Amino acid sequence: MSSTTPVINGPLNLRPGQSLAHLDKTPELKYWFCHAFQFNNPEKMGQDRFAVSHGIPKATFGQWLKIYKTYGDNAMAIFENSRVGRPPKIDDIATEKIKTQIIGFEKASMSMSKEELKEIALEAARETAMRRGQTTGGLSVGLTSMKNLSAKINPVPSMPQGKNNARLAAESDPRNVITLAVMMKVFCENLFPELIFYWDSNPFEVDMD
Q1: Are 112 and 118 in contact (CB under 8 A)?
Q2: pLDDT of 76-96, one tens digit each?
Q3: Based on the domain organization, do 38 and 63 belong to the same domain?
Q4: Residue 3 pairs with which residues in a beta bridge?
Q5: Virtual CA dihedral for 30, 34, 36, 38, nearest 10 degrees?
């Protein structure tokens, strides 16, 4: 049974052969142990020897070190938010890119379907894997990854506007294009761009109180 790990707020000063096997593997211990390997390793021990000499399984330390090297100063947050220390399939860089794409859809008054978001998420996962030097073959984005992504980007669900057959027929009439062009020419041709507005009241809600 592991004992309570003392609070670790900074670099570890490990003695040669000092075992950490009995301590809880907290995010702080993982981070600063990797830091010690990188910057406080006077014997220049290799990864496996350093891990074993301090009572950490080689494979386990390999996972920690991969996260530490990938995320640097942000590795602590990854250790804190991951139950097994495995980094998310979509990193922060890719997440910000997805947010920008969603904003682009919103500015164009377009909505993004779940299928479209999943395709974008899959491409983001591929980009993340390439940044980490990993292969992208057979990569998939499952339910857990999509839930984690949704928690970060906080998408706003919306109901699509339904159209009946009469509206579809009316909107497909070429006279709509012609009359709109005439209207724009008559009213806007000699106006400064700053004086041209488009107001659509469809999304408005009126409080009767």
Answers
A1: no
A2: 888 877 655 566 788 888 889
A3: yes
A4: 23
A5: -170
